[in-house]
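CO-FOLDING WORKSHEET

Operator: S.A.
Ligand of interest: NAP
Run index: 260
Mode: holo prediction, single chain
Checklist:
[x] sequence pasted
[x] SMILES validated
[ ] output reviewed
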Amino acid sequence: MEGCGRIEHLGDGVSGLRIGETVAYCLSRGSYAEYAVVPAWKLVPVPDGTAPAIATALMLQGSTAHYLTHSAFPLKRGDTCLIHAGAGGVGQLLIQLAKRAGATVITTVGSADKAQIARDRGADHVILYRDVDFGDEVRRLTDGRGVDVAYDSVGRDTLPRSLRALRRRGVCISFGASSGQPDPVSVLDLAEAGSVFLTRPHLADYMTTTDEIRARAADLFGAHREGALHVAIDRTFPLAQAAAAHTIIEGRATRARAQS
Ligand SMILES: NC(=O)c1ccc[n+]([C@@H]2O[C@H](COP(=O)([O-])OP(=O)(O)OC[C@H]3O[C@@H](n4cnc5c(N)ncnc54)[C@H](OP(=O)(O)O)[C@@H]3O)[C@@H](O)[C@H]2O)c1
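OUTPUT RECEIVED:
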């Protein structure tokens, strides 16, 4: 659903873009191909010096981290957030944007080497959630209070405990299901967790106009250019080996090997 390339052809009536220009996009299916047909309003010109792979990662994973921290729950100085899978693609960007906003970051990861990645991105506290109960750890780290917001991309394995890790009237954002779709949540569970809020957003609802898409991209591309946002590209594969890339993702084996 995301990609970057040079414009080969423009549809009738398209203005503000030119043939040969390098553009990036997300939320348009059909990117596993040499050519993609993308609605013009979704295209973002890529600044000189930003590599295609970085631009592509920033369009989808970056925009996701951006709307979560700026729009779905705008973080501010003094907030404490819980970010699951902090060494994942979105997770690493979430940690960095949360730290930029002045928040304290508690993150979970599946292994010790991933813990180091999350620390390198700026996480204040890292929990190995396959070894310890992250709900108990969050309570301990927050002196029993709980976090202001939980960003939960893991789903089935974590969502009930993410709700319980919130402070009274805190917010849980369930935005992914890496471990499978979570079981349905009863509305009474929200009351009993401390009158908390639960939302399940789609990126598309936070990327509704060209202006909104380009504002997020400008902030992300700018932060990357200034060295304030690291984008990790683990490995690259030729299109013919796309299935191998999916096997690695499904096996939780992606890592931040190369830094840009
Ligand atoms: N709603 C939205 O707007 C939106 C937008 C973009 C992405 N997403 C979703 O956000 C999630 C994260 O995306 P991403 O690009 O950051 O993915 P990613 O780089 O592949 O990271 C996913 C991480 O989830 C963790 N995980 C936990 N249980 C897992 C399991 N059973 N199988 C595989 N991984 C598991 C792994 O970290 P550990 O080993 O450390 O646990 C893994 O590194 C995905 O579910 C994606 O669909 C949602």
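REVIEW:
Residues 52-72 form the longest helix (21 residues).
The radius of gyration is 19 Å.
[x] output reviewed
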